[in-house]
Amino acid sequence: MITLYTMGSDSPNIRKVTIILNELDLPFSIQHVQKHADNESDNEFLRVNPNGTVPAIYDPETDTALFESGAILYYLAHKSRQLLPDEPKPRAEVMKWLMFESANMGPVMGELYYYILAGDDLPEHYLQRYKDKVANFCAIIERRLEGRDYLGDVYSIADIVLYPWTIILEDMADILLSDYPNLEKWAARIDQRPSTQST
After folding, report:
1. What would the CATH number be for the domain defined by 2-80?
2. Three-class DSSP category at 146
3. Contact at 8 Å (CB) between 127 and 112?
4. Distance, CA of 157 to chain centre
5. What is the rounded distance in angstroms from the CA atom of residue 14 to the CA atom of residue 36?
6. 184 C-beta neighbours (distance < 10 Å), count
7. Single pTM value for the model
């Protein structure tokens, strides 16, 4: 059984991994770890992820420890031969959107979250810079979804990796999904999947 390491919160990165585990119907257990704690279980976790961040997984079937949500999604999809096309061109389409999230949406939303927590004395232009970046990412995804149901030809890890950010766009970035009709329909489509509803 796969072990999923979390810190007890349902962050977008944790949500990505629980969605794919449910989508693939893979049994898993949850191991809560504490940041900056010094005990035996947390030392075990640092062997799984030396960076000490979540999510991370350990798969005893292949004796594989993984961290970073994009890497975890790729591993599980590749291992199961689901949610990732076999043919080179469709696979490349999925991989570029997986990397788009890892290099753009994820880091920028993370920075925005940090600045929001930093307090009201932070200059507004700090926050606005990141909100503008997120709005640009939404516009890019909106154009990609024109005339298509999913980012690739079919539902894949590209959709799973980007979907959890849509849930918090309004609260964190003052972005309304209704301003992006293709993105809004895409998110609603994923909302209805049993694997998403069970997370």
Report:
1. 3.40.30.10
2. coil
3. yes
4. 9
5. 19
6. 16
7. 0.93
C-alpha triplet 27, 30, 35: angle, nearest 5° = 150
CB of 4 closer than 8 Å to CB of 16: no
What ranges in the chain are assigned the alpha helix state H? 12-23, 40-48, 69-80, 88-100, 106-118, 124-144, 157-166, 169-173, 181-191, 194-197
Measured distance CA(73)–CA(22) in Å, rounded: 12
Kindly state the tokens that stand for 25.
Answer: 């119907």
Three-state SS at 3: strand
Per run of 10 residues, the mean pLDDT along the chain (length 199 residues) is 89 96 96 69 82 94 96 98 97 98 95 79 83 97 98 96 95 94 98 86
- Rounded to 5 degrees, φ, ψ at 30 are -105, 130
Q: Are 32 and 73 in contact (CB under 8 A)?
A: no
Domain boundaries, the chain: 2-80, 88-197
CATH of 88-197 given 3.90.226.10, 2.60.120.10, 3.30.2350.10, 1.20.1050.10: 1.20.1050.10
Residue 60: is the preceding peptide bond cis (ω within 30°)? no
Where do we find the tokens 């894949």? 156
77 near 25, Cβ under 8 Å? no
DSSP β-ladder status, 28-32 and 2-6: parallel
2-80 and 88-197 have identical folds: no
